[in-house]
Write a structure and sequence with these properties.
- The chain is α+β, with helices and mostly antiparallel strands.
- The protein contains 8 helices and 9 strands.
- A 5-stranded mixed sheet has the order 2-1-3-5-4, sandwiched between helices. Strands 7-8-6-9 form a 4-stranded antiparallel sheet.
- Strand 7 and strand 8 form a beta hairpin.
- Helix 2 runs antiparallel to helix 3.
- The longest helix has about 35 residues.
- The radius of gyration is 22 Å and the shape is elongated.
C-alpha cells in the first residue's frame, strides 16, 4: 500500500471519528434540553461546582498526547454553549482604564461569543449582577488598600444577592497579552456548592476594629483553616468593621465552627455572612502532557 493510500485511509478514519463526536454533541444537547425543562423555575442556571467537577473528572481520566489545556478549553466551550441553551447568559466585566486583562479572562472562561459588557467601576459590575442585567460578573481579587471594596456589597441577607462562584483562571494562564499573572473572581446569585476541592469566603462584621493576626489565630483555633484575610472600615461609621476571610475548605453557612468562633471571640461579632467560594484551579502538574510509555523490546 502506497503512502498516499495510507494517508487517505487515515483521513477518512479521522472524518468518521469527527462525525461520531458531532453525533454525540447533538445527543448531549438533547439531554441539555431536558435539563432546561427540569430547571425551568430557576432564575439562574449556572452551577460552577458542577462545571469544576466535569473538568476534574475529564482531566483525571485523560490519556494520550492530546493537550489537557486544549481539552479543558473544548469543554469550557461546550459548557458555555449549554448555558446559552438553558437561558439568557451574559457577562459584566471590570475593565479599569480600558485594560483588557479581565476581559480576556472572561473570554477564556465564558467564550468568545457570549455577550459581554465592560465597566470601569467594580460597583457597577456588582449592580449588573444584582439586577440580572448580566448573569455573572468578573471582578478583581480583593486587596487590603481598596477604599471601597466590592465584596462588602455581597454581605447581604437578600437571598438573591450575588455570591462568589469561581476564581479565574481555572485552567492556567492563557497566551493573551494583558492577563499574564492576572486573577479574578466571578460572582453570580447562586448558592455556594462543594466541588471536592474548595475555598469558602465569609464577611465577618465586628463591633470594633481588631488586628488581622488576632482574627486569623481565632479562626484557626476553631478549626477553620483561614488562608487569606483583608479588612475594611467605614470612616463615617465607627461601628462598621468588615473582614473578608477565605477558608481552605467548603464551609456551610450553618457550620458549628462558625458558632464557636462567634461565641468565643474576644470582640462581639455582629454577623457572619457567607459570600460564596470557588473550586480550586487545576494545577500545572494536572494539566501537564504525559507521554504514553513505550514497551521495552
Amino acid at each position: 500500500m502506497c503512502a498516499e493510500t495510507t494517508l487517505n485511509a487515515l483521513r477518512q478514519e479521522i472524518d468518521d471519528i469527527d462525525s461520531q463526536i458531532h453525533d454525540l454533541l447533538i445527543k448531549r444537547t438533547l439531554v441539555v434540553e431536558k435539563v432546561r425543562t427540569v430547571k425551568r423555575g430557576h432564575k439562574v442556571k449556572i452551577r460552577a461546582a458542577r462545571e469544576a467537577e466535569i473538568l476534574y473528572r475529564l482531566v483525571g481520566r485523560h490519556k494520550g498526547l492530546f493537550p489537557k489545556r486544549e481539552l479543558t478549553n473544548i469543554w469550557r466551550q461546550i459548557i458555555v454553549a449549554t448555558l446559552s441553551i438553558e437561558g439568557p447568559f451574559s457577562v459584566s466585566v471590570y475593565m479599569p482604564d480600558d485594560a483588557s486583562g479581565f476581559w480576556d479572562l472572561a473570554c477564556v472562561q465564558y467564550g468568545s461569543f457570549t455577550p459581554m459588557t465592560g465597566h470601569r467601576s467594580a460597583r457597577q459590575v456588582v449592580e449588573d449582577v444584582m439586577t440580572q442585567t448580566a448573569t455573572v460578573g468578573i471582578l478583581p481579587i480583593p486587596c487590603s488598600d481598596d477604599s471601597n471594596p466590592w465584596w462588602r456589597y455581597l454581605a447581604s441577607s437578600n437571598p438573591d444577592a450575588p455570591k462568589i462562584i469561581a476564581r479565574l483562571p481555572f485552567t492556567g494562564q492563557s497566551n493573551t497579552r494583558d492577563d499574564a499573572g492576572l486573577e479574578a473572581l466571578v460572582i453570580c446569585p447562586v448558592p455556594h456548592e462543594p466541588a471536592g476541592r474548595d475555598r469558602t469566603l465569609f464577611v465577618i462584621e465586628l463591633k470594633q476594629r481588631v488586628g488581622l493576626d488576632l482574627l486569623h489565630d481565632a479562626l484557626i483555633a476553631c478549626d477553620l483553616p483561614v488562608v487569606q484575610e483583608t479588612s475594611w472600615h467605614d470612616d463615617e461609621s465607627k461601628n462598621m468593621r468588615l473582614y473578608l476571610v477565605e477558608i481552605d475548605s467548603f464551609v456551610a453557612e450553618d457550620d458549628s465552627r462558625l458558632n464557636r468562633f462567634s461565641e468565643n471571640f474576644s470582640v462581639p461579632v455582629k454577623q457572619i455572612a457567607q459570600v460564596g467560594g470557588y473550586a480550586l484551579a487545576l494545577t500545572d502538574e494536572e494539566l501537564a502532557i504525559v507521554a504514553p510509555s513505550s514497551d521495552a523490546d
